[in-house]
């Protein structure tokens, strides 16, 4: 069996990097950027290797190309994992996700090693990329959101935590449905009951962006569908 570090190398080369390039970013290995004439909008992989696993998270950074060219820092472009003091904005991916915490994904040996990589790519697609685009050019913010921001979920996640139910990891808007993803199972009756109440709360708000609420696990397997 390949060890974790071999799986990590394969995951970067065959899954993570191609997926980010398919989203429109350029780069390879652990640093990627959005093509833009005025800005370095970058995503960087922060790796924390351990004995039997690899933990990683993502740093995001926005630096004016004019400021970068005028600086004395080495390199063709800024490294999003470094702090230069000339950034217009920088954040760790967890600051954008509904959990609101520092989020680290783990690559472990076994049949589920790809799950972490797929989830981190989804975090870039639905949270990091829209935020970078919005900050580069407000015109990208046309009101057609594809996700709910952390602020929209703070009260809900607090209620889930009180009920000892796993918090919402992603909240996507897809085809007039609000899709909630989290570490839940179909057999968890408490999670089902609490999430039903959560869905009723969302639907009672009369948000025109969605007409039903779908709940799925971290492997994107559908668990429950709640309608008005």
Mean pLDDT: 85
Structural class label: alpha+beta
Count of folded domains: 2
* Total helical segments: 5
Gyration radius from CA atoms, angstroms: 19 Å
Percent in helix: 25-40%
Task: Pick out the low-confidence regions.
Answer: 139-143
- Shape by Cα distribution: globular
Element order: H for helix, E for strand: HEEEEHEEHHEEHEE
Q: What is the subunit arrangement here? A: single chain
Amount of beta strand? 25-35%
Main β-sheet, in a few words?
6 strands, antiparallel
Distance between the termini: 49 Å
Q: What is the tally of beta strands?
A: 10
Overview of the molecule:
The chain is of the alpha+beta class. The protein folds into 2 domains: 137 residues, no CATH class; 77 residues, 2-Layer Sandwich (GMP Synthetase, Chain A, domain 3). Helix content is 34%, strand content 26%. It contains 5 helices and 10 strands. Strand 2 and strand 3 form a beta hairpin.
Question: Secondary-structure blueprint of this entry?
Answer:
Blueprint: H1 4-22, E1 26-28, E2 31-34, E3 39-49, E4 54-64, H2 65-70, E5 89-92, E6 105-107, H3 113-136, H4 150-162, E7 168-174, E8 177-182, H5 189-204, E9 212-216, E10 222-226
Parallel strand pairs: 8-9
Antiparallel strand pairs: 1-2, 2-3, 3-4, 4-5, 4-6, 7-8, 9-10
Helix pairs in contact: 1-3
């Amino acid at each position: 069996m390949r060890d974790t570090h071999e799986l990590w190398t394969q995951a970067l080369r065959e899954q993570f990097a191609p997926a980010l390039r398919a989203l429109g970013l350029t780069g390879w290995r652990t640093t990627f950027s959005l093509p833009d004439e005025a800005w370095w909008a970058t995503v960087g992989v922060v790796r924390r290797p351990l004995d039997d696993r690899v933990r990683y998270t993502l740093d995001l950074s926005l630096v004016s190309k004019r400021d970068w060219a005028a600086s004395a820092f080495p390199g063709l472009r800024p490294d999003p994992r470094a702090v230069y003091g000339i950034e217009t904005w920088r954040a760790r991916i967890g600051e954008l996700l509904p959990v609101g915490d520092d989020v680290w994904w783990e690559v472990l040996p076994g049949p589920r090693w790809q799950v972490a990589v797929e989830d981190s790519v989804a975090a870039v697609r639905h949270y990091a990329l829209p935020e970078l685009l919005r900050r580069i050019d407000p015109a990208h913010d046309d009101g057609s959101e594809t996700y709910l921001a952390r602020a929209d979920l703070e009260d809900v996640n607090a209620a889930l935590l009180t009920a000892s139910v796993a918090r919402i990891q992603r909240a996507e808007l897809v085809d007039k449905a609000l899709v909630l993803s989290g570490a839940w199972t179909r057999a968890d009756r408490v999670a089902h009951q609490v999430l039903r109440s959560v869905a009723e709360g969302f639907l009672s708000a009369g948000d025109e962006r969605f007409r039903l609420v779908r709940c799925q696990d971290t492997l994107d397997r559908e668990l429950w569908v709640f309608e008005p």
